[in-house]
């Protein structure tokens, strides 16, 4: 029998998985990814209402903070240890993609 929560989470995760996959495969720019990831999350009632299962929520919330901490190299302040560059964001995106795929057993 299909777990209803896992089924719904899988449906709602698809847009994030697709976007992250396009980013890690370098089919879209970092700027395009950042803009669209943040906009998608901001307009996602499923995520914003806390509907994702806890482990998926933790992965997504952590990655949201990563995306929010991204600063293009030309704007980075080397003294701000919270800012991450494109290379670090890409590394974290790959890790997030793996974790999310494992959560929904793709």
Could you explain the architecture of this structure?
This protein is mainly alpha-helical and about 110 residues long. It has one domain (about 1-105): Colicin D (Four Helix Bundle (Hemerythrin (Met), subunit A), Up-down Bundle), CATH 1.20.120. The chain has helices at about 5-25, 30-40, 45-50, 55-70, 85-105. Helix 1 packs antiparallel against helix 2 (about 30-40). The two termini are about 15 Å apart. The mean pLDDT is about 90.
List its traits.
about 110 residues, Four Helix Bundle (Hemerythrin (Met), subunit A), Colicin_D_immunity_dom, 5 helices, elongated, mainly alpha, about 70% helix
| Mean pLDDT reading | 91
Please report the distance between the alpha carbons of the first and last residues.
Answer: 17 Å
> Under the CATH scheme, which architecture would be assigned?
Up-down Bundle
Given the helix and strand composition, which structural class is it?
A: mainly alpha
Biggest sheet, in brief?
Answer: none
How many strand elements?
0
CATH topology: Four Helix Bundle (Hemerythrin (Met), subunit A)
Order of helices and strands: HHHHH
CATH superfamily: Colicin D
Percent in strands: under 5%
Q: What is the count of DSSP helices, taking H or I runs of 4+ residues?
A: 5
Number of domains: 1
List low-pLDDT spans.
none
The CATH class is identified as Mainly Alpha
**Rg, please?**
14 Å
């Amino acid at each position: 029998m299909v777990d209803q929560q896992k089924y719904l989470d899988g449906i709602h995760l698809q847009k994030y998985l697709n976007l992250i996959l396009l980013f890690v495969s370098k089919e879209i720019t970092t700027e395009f990814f950042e803009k669209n990831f943040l906009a998608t999350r901001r307009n996602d009632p499923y995520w914003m209402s806390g509907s994702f299962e806890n482990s998926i929520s933790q992965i997504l919330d952590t990655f949201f903070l990563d995306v929010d901490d991204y600063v293009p190299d030309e704007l980075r302040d080397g003294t701000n240890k919270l800012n991450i560059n494109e290379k670090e964001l890409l590394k974290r995106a790959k890790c997030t993609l793996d974790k999310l795929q494992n959560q929904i057993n793709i």
